[in-house]
Amino acid sequence: MELKHTETGFSRNANQSSHWIYLKIAFGIFRTIFSNQSIPEQLNTHTNIKVLDVRKNLLTTINSLIRNWADQMHEIHGMTLYLDGNAFICNCDNLDFIRWIHTTKVDLDSRSYKCQLSNGSVTDTLTAYNSFSELFADCKSTMWLTFASTLLSTCITISLLLLLYSKRWKIAFSIYGVIRRTIEKKIRKTYQYDVYMSYEGEIVIWIKDVLAPKLEDEWGLTMCIKDRDFLIGESLLDTEAECIKNSRYIIFLITPEFKSSRDCLFELDRAKYEKVTKNLDKIIVITKDIIVTDIPYEFSYIWNYAYVVQWPKEEEDLNDTWRRLEMLLTDCQVQNKQIAR
């Protein structure tokens, strides 16, 4: 800022005291430092200014900081403010400025300055002040709309946070499950079969007619069924051992005929071995037409890691049983290994 004599810049009073009595701001000097649409707020640190001339600039308003400073200067030693010839705007954001022009005790060069309304028409601050209710009727609506929108957003945000907090463990377990399945897919062994069936006797008809269509056609699993998939002429025990090794799961379908089968006990031994070597993911035991207490005692060695499904006799209970079996065979998390009717 350039300091000159009274008419164009700073000057001292007659006795050469340290009090500045006149300040003229030419915004062209400060255009690369301050916006020419506002008075530099640094002025509020000066307490000896009596006259501020900001005429013929591009001011759109006088902010609250400068207004409060001018009021304080007037209370201390009197204050004169020249505002004519600026580009004031009369809108909802400037209501406090319009009121201030007509209520302040600061000596202004006018109480009526030209200003532009929101619709583009030109009026003056005196007319705007006298027609508040007409010109700015929408301001309250806008204010309440903003308040309502803010309140609604806050309520929605709080509700979402509370919902997330209440479901935090479920969300955490879901994320864990996704990560776990993703990792398992990358490192998991490729199996020839999804399910190896261990059974005995005529129950194979039920397997082919009821179980296989559900697992293979609907659930997309690959089953190994001895009476269907084993080749003639190969060693039965070797083939069983190899197929169990190449299966992700094994299902023991225990029926009254199963109890007398020595071959099924061999499959049980192979399943225990493959499970211990972590080559077999799950051992599932389905009991059909037999009570749990009649299961061969050899199965007691696998109860710690076997899943038991008791097949219902009533048709209305089948949907629940199918759903539980699907959970076991499609990598869903099961918290209770003992699944029964």
Structural features, described:
Its main location: membrane. It is found in: Membrane. The chain crosses the membrane at residues 143-165. The chain has 12 helices and 13 strands. Helix content is 42%, strand content 14%. Helix 10 (236-245) packs parallel to helix 11 (262-276). Strands 9-8-10-11-12-13 form a 6-stranded parallel β-sheet, sandwiched between helices. The protein has a 4-stranded parallel β-sheet with strand order 1-2-3-5, with no helix packed on it. A 3-stranded mixed β-sheet has the order 4-6-7. The chain has helices at residues 27-30, 64-77, 95-103, 125-130, 132-135, 137-166, 168-187, 203-218, 226-229, 236-245, 262-276, 318-329; strands at residues 23-24, 51-53, 80-82, 88-90, 107-108, 114-117, 122-124, 193-198, 223-224, 247-254, 282-287, 306-310, 338-339.
